[in-house]
Design brief:
With 439 residues, the chain is of the alpha+beta class. The chain contains 18 helices and 9 strands. The strands form 2 sheets. Strands 1, 2, 3, 4, 7, 8 and 9 form a 7-stranded mixed beta sheet that branches. Strands 5-6 form a two-stranded antiparallel sheet. Helix 14 crosses helix 15 and helix 17 runs antiparallel to helix 18.
Length: 439
């Protein structure tokens, strides 16, 4: 079977996560065995809460008609699931379907663990924003997954405290910095926000908004540009605010962070569409006092956001029923009833644009009951998601970020130096695994 030039590059260039050499077998659904007669049984590995209830809708409806039954097997998320998938694939025992975070797709594709399902789901592209769909194609004509949920980034702020201190909602990052300094002058004990290094996705999304593309290819080589001018700009901006004390430097998701949000010591948070759920737990006493706005832009004429989180539904090359699996993946992430159930049972924000302002998203989150247009705004923001560029060792880069930027934030030291550490370590890891890396 023939590959596109890009597919050959990805498959041959990315090291196998388990330490073996990259596989060269074909992963297209053209060699599918769906032509056999009789009922089809599929297994789906996922971590989304309540997915079994969503799948029941399929099994009792479209699946019953198509004689395609899906069984859910709950799994851990993140790197743990990626490793488990690759281990199973090495033994040719991977499930038919897997839930995969967008940044994990290059690793799975390079190991020939995911099938090209463009022939079965290609017409679903129009249901997703360009920047979202691109994450499942890796810049090729192939389609390796169907987008499921996304995390477009936004700006959250205490509406009551902004009014109390006479602050304007920043529309640019320059205004954001000025707002942080203005708040410090008026209320020295408060912080506009904090820079946190314990969730790499936040910084990656901010860099994405600025135009960064951390992993690309040049010929048959990988090119790593984590310390490109766009990301340096982001690092310099946040590092400067931390160093001057205009914002806090404490990590998120700690008791101290929760208290800062709940008491109004921290009055804003750069986050994503899933923030209401976090705020409900972290700052329960401030329900109804927050508002959401688009992420500040680098220039007034820009209208773009980054992405923090999100996952897709992929079909594995081990599946003996790839076409049937692809049919389910498309239904799960484009059908109105399925998407409403995903929102209700799993709490996800759908990647499909039509679902973002219908069904479960006709009313704002309970925590933001004061902002009736919450999901209307969120849908508009999601459409502006910038394209991303993930590579084969995102997990290594993310670990380096946490270590280098964690120390820089704590010590209020040079963020660009931390970025260079992240760049150098990521390149070194690629070379160690046997990759060719372009200068």
């Amino acid at each position: 079977m023939l590959y596109t030039k890009r597919r050959r590059l990805v498959t041959s260039a990315v090291a196998v996560a388990l330490g073996a050499t990259a596989l060269a077998a074909c992963g297209s659904s053209d060699d599918d065995s769906d032509a056999q007669s009789g009922p089809v049984s599929l297994t789906y590995w996922t971590w989304t809460p309540g997915m079994d209830k969503v799948v029941d809708l399929w099994n009792k409806g479209p699946g019953k008609k198509e004689q395609i039954t899906v069984t859910v097997k709950k799994q851990a998320s993140g790197d743990t699931l990626v490793t488990k998938i690759l281990t199973a694939h090495k033994a040719k025992k991977a499930p038919d379907l897997v839930q995969a975070e967008y940044q994990a797709l290059p690793t799975l594709v390079s190991n020939d663990a995911l099938a090209d399902i463009s022939g079965e789901v290609g017409d679903a592209e129009e249901k997703f924003a360009d920047g979202v769909w691109q994450q499942t194609t890796l810049g090729t004509d192939a389609v390796y997954a169907v987008p499921q949920d996304i995390g477009p980034m936004m700006f959250y702020y205490r509406e009551d405290l902004f009014k109390k201190y006479g602050l304007e909602v920043p529309t640019t990052w320059d205004e954001f910095a000025k707002t942080a300094r203005e708040l410090k002058r008026k209320a020295p004990e408060k912080d506009l926000t904090t820079f946190s290094a314990n969730d790499s996705g936040l910084f990656a999304g901010l860099a994405q908004q600025a135009g960064a593309k951390w992993w690309t290819t040049s010929g048959d080589k990988w090119k790593v540009a984590i310390n490109d001018p766009a990301t340096q700009k982001v690092a310099r901006f946040w590092g400067g605010l931390v160093k001057e004390g205009a914002i806090d430097n404490q990590p998120m998701y700690t008791p101290a962070w929760n208290k800062a949000l709940n008491t109004g010591k921290q009055i804003a948070w750069v986050s994503a569409v899933w923030a209401p759920g976090t705020l409900t737990t972290a700052a329960p006493d401030t329900k109804g006092k927050w508002a959401m706005a688009p992420l500040p832009q680098w220039t007034e004429s820009d209208n773009v956001t980054g992405s923090w989180g999100g996952s897709s539904t992929a079909v594995t090359t081990d599946s003996k029923h790839k076409a049937a699996a692809a049919k389910f993946a498309a239904w799960l992430n484009t059908d109105g009833d399925a998407l409403n159930a995903l929102a209700r049972e799993g709490g996800i924000y759908p990647a499909a644009t039509s679902a973002q302002t219908s069904g479960a998203f006709l009313k704002p989150p309970a925590y933001f009951a004061n902002q009736a247009d919450f999901y209307t705004q969120a849908a508009d923001i999601a459409e502006t998601t910038a394209p991303s560029a993930w590579g084969p060792n995102v997990n290594v880069a993310y670990t380096l970020f946490k270590d280098a930027f964690g120390a820089a934030a704590k010590n209020k030291s040079d963020f660009v130096a931390a970025l260079n550490t992240m760049q150098d370590g990521t390149v070194a890891d690629l070379k160690k695994q046997g990759f060719e890396v372009a200068r």
